[in-house]
Design goal:
The complex is a heterodimer. By secondary structure, chain A is α/β, with parallel strands linked by helices. Chain A has 32 helices and 20 strands.
């Protein structure tokens, strides 16, 4: 009743005789039969509480309008005009209010219901004049005393036989007169037209545009997409009597599927996490960017999106939350409103990948030119260094014209962080190195690197998948597995149909019986690494990983090393290149091991392939992590090298706190923008680490 | 004299001593600062060399919360 009463002007009449065109529009009618809305409205009238509408304030217009006739169109127009503040005179040829309706609705609506519906005119500025048969003369007289006249359609037709009616506005060719055209909906159509006529009268008398903004007036087809997946066809409840009993009505309402789209939310743990939907998120983000001072409550939400573009591909209208969040991040960086802690670790990791411990750009050993340049990406070297070396050995052995090697980051980390200038600098450096090497064709092992180079540079790329398709699998690699596996598609391959296809073919070649996940190809969810979500909001990133890993019971085959790393922590997962080239001993390294791996793979390649001697960085401080500390460090994004820096300083300055209960030392050191605290104990020549934590605030003696 | 407002006051654990001075830590006046804001606090410190201790619960609790609030301002 709370829903129905405010929206239906003559609720008792409508619920009895409405033609109910809405029922055919009900989504369930696509399966079997729509919700019996008319009967439910009747039930709400019969069993609900009908409250007398109270109006607190109507702004008076001090203009007189008239309605001639007393059908539903005229009564609706009179009511709506009165609501808008006009004085309304209703001229009726009948002797009392409701008589006309009683005659036309006889046997279909009770007299009591009709009279009860007429109560809405109580306390409204509407004066009824009965026994006033309409004539051309009386209409002309009324026109002299009223500024607008709404005429019953049949009266208009009899008095103005040649008169024309505009169906959109209900204006007529006779000045100041408004009426409707007959439609197939004499009940609900008439009431809606009454409202429409009142709007046109109001706009005409106010001197504003009659047509502006009326596109969706009355009923129109919704753009809301609602999936019927998983909805079983059922039958509407048939009333045992004339109308529903209370119980029957409740049963019928339970058929309602509450039309909503949320298709993108269903496929994305991030969109689910904030318990709302993109329209609201976009508004929150807009507000977050708009406020000059105060708390920016949506910062974390903006920085938690994987920027993977899944939502855009799922949405029937292409709404792209990734683009919204990405633009928001760029704006936050430009306006110095980006929280400093959000992406610092990730950007330092990118700096590491492009720093001396990992970065490398060389022609193939023994050559001075390269037709190809293998670019495995920043995380491949961090997670799968042995696999990387095996791939490079194979490519440089089988591709003609020299295969150079470039180790580094494509810059996507800065792009994800909204740091445009930093992103440009990273790309510029890669481009310069590529030019120095004679502009070879870049062979990418990461779909994200590939998409970055294609979108933002003129560097020519081929994917490793295209290369392996062309030259075939390395000798000796045969189909050994008879396993079933699900392909987990990479977000970097959303626009790369060819790679998605080759990976599937190659997995089959390797003996796998592969199938797709529920969300696949361009609608695959994020593994939790994308968009730096794992750095800005570990909880949401974990939910993304859990969602991704939980889509299928079969082991996964991935073709992105980050997907393999994150999903592989939750279930059996392999990178297709690992199936071909072998897997590293530690397949899910910690944050610190990733850095060691990068440095190690560069050193090994330089020594073994290029025969260069490399000085190994030796730490004077050797640490051992107590049980559970490795996981703790990853959770808190603390590197072993930070810990070593703390202990180095503490041992040198002797500035540490001693806990006499445990005999452990507790020391701190400011490294960059962070103060790290470490609890440790010297054990022979090593240091055993019991815990570590950090804060960004500076602390000093007051 | 008006008492100075402190945002946090942490008692020193009796087992903690300064590794260098061997003095038991005592509660002393310190200051946290971040993004142009400063907060007077009382933290365990060495009475002699003024080495300050920020306990883990404080660093990962109130300090982290205030850091986030200041970053979102």
């Amino acid at each position: 009743m709370q829903v129905f009463q405010p929206s239906a002007t003559f609720g008792r009449i409508v619920s009895s005789v409405c033609e109910a065109p809405c029922e055919a529009g009900c989504k369930l009618s696509e399966l079997n039969s729509g919700i019996n809305i008319r009967r439910l409205e009747r039930a709400s009238v019969m069993y609900g509480q009908y409250n007398q509408k109270k109006r607190f304030f109507i702004s008076k217009k001090n203009k007189k309008t008239a309605v001639i006739g007393e059908d539903l169109f005229c009564l609706s127009a009179a009511y709506e005009l009165a609501k808008k503040g006009y004085d309304v005179d209703v001229f009726s040829e009948y002797g009392a209010l409701g008589e006309s309706l009683d005659e036309t609705l006889k046997g279909r609506v009770s007299r009591e219901d009709i009279l009860a519906d007429m109560d809405i005119f109580k306390d409204m500025p509407v004066v009824f004049h009965f026994n006033r048969a309409p004539s051309k003369q009386s209409v002309e007289e009324i026109l002299t005393t009223h500024e607008a006249v709404v005429l019953e359609q049949k009266i208009f037709a009899s008095l103005f036989a040649d008169g024309e009616i505009d169906a959109q506005t209900l204006q007529t060719s006779v000045d100041k007169i408004f009426t409707r055209k007959e439609t197939s909906l004499p009940i609900i159509g008439a009431i809606a037209d009454g409202k429409k006529a009142a709007t046109t009268v109001d706009r005409t008398l106010q001197g504003v545009s009659v047509l502006e903004g009326r596109k969706n007036e009355g009923s129109y087809e919704t753009t809301l997409y609602t999936s019927l997946d998983g909805v079983a066809p059922d039958k509407p409840v048939v009333p045992k009597g004339k109308e529903y009993t209370k119980e029957e009505a409740v049963e019928e309402t339970q058929r309602c599927i509450h039309c909503e789209c949320l298709e993108c939310v269903k496929g994305c743990a991030y969109l689910k996490h904030y318990k709302s939907y993109p329209k609201k998120y976009v508004r929150e983000i807009y507000n977050n960017l708009s406020i000059a001072a105060g708390h920016h409550t949506a910062n974390t939400m903006i920085n938690s999106c994987a920027l993977c573009g899944q939502c855009k591909n799922i949405c029937p209208f292409g709404l792209d939350m990734s683009m919204v969040c990405h633009l928001a991040r760029q704006t936050m960086v430009e306006t110095a409103k980006m929280p400093p802690s959000a992406h610092e670790f990730a950007l330092l990791d990118m700096e590491h990948a492009n720093g001396e411990e990992y970065f490398l750009a060389k022609h193939q050993s023994g050559t001075d030119k390269s037709s190809y340049l293998f670019f495995p990406g920043c995380q491949f070297g961090a997670i799968a260094p042995q696999t990387l070396q095996a791939i490079y050995a194979d490519l440089s052995g089988r591709l003609k014209g020299g295969v150079g090697l470039m180790l580094g980051c494509c810059g996507i980390m800065a792009n994800w962080a909204g740091q445009e200038a930093m992103f440009d600098r990273a790309l510029q450096r890669l481009k310069e190195q590529w030019e120095e090497l004679g502009k070879p064709t870049i062979v990418t092992a990461c779909t994200m690197c590939n998409s970055v180079f294609e979108e933002f540079t003129e560097m020519k790329t081929v994917t490793i998948w295209q290369v392996l398709k062309e030259i075939g699998l390395p000798p000796g690699v045969t189909a050994t597995s008879l396993e079933k596996a699900a392909i987990f598609d990479a977000c970097g391959a959303r626009d790369d149909e060819e790679s998605r296809k080759i990976v599937r073919d190659m997995a089959r070649q390797l003996g796998y019986e592969v199938h797709d996940l529920k969300y696949n190809h361009e609608t695959s969810p994020c593994c939790g690494y994308g968009g730096l979500a794992a750095f800005a909001n570990r909880q949401v990133a974990r939910e993304m990983t859990d969602f991704a890993a939980g889509l299928d019971e079969a082991p996964y085959l991935t073709y992105c090393i980050n997907c393999r790393d994150r999903v592989g922590r939750e279930k059996s997962a392999n990178h297709v290149l690992e199936l071909i080239y072998g897997k590293d001993d530690i397949d899910s390294p910690s944050l610190s091991q990733r850095r060691y791996n990068r440095a190690k793979v560069k050193k090994q390649l330089l020594e073994e392939v290029w025969k260069e001697s490399v000085m190994e960085k030796q730490n004077e401080i050797q640490i051992t992590l107590h049980e559970g500390v490795e996981a703790l460090l990853d959770e808190r994004m603390i590197l072993e090298e930070d810990i070593i820096k703390v202990i180095e300083q503490a041992e040198k300055t002797k500035c540490a706190i001693l806990d006499r209960k445990t005999n452990h030392l507790i020391a701190s050191r400011r490294v960059g923008n962070v103060t790290f605290w470490v609890e440790y104990e010297k054990e022979n020549e090593q240091y055993r680490i019991y815990r570590a934590y950090s804060h960004r605030m500076m602390v000093e003696e007051a | 004299m008006e008492e100075k407002k402190v945002y946090e006051s942490i008692e020193a654990d009796a087992s903690l001593v300064c590794g260098q001075c061997q003095e038991p830590l005592v509660k002393g006046s310190a200051k946290f600062s971040y993004m142009g804001n400063a907060f007077p606090v009382e933290l365990p410190m060495c009475p002699k060399c003024k080495l300050i201790y920020v306990p883990e619960e404080l660093a990962l609790g109130r300090v982290l919360k205030v850091e986030k609030e200041l970053e979102d301002k």
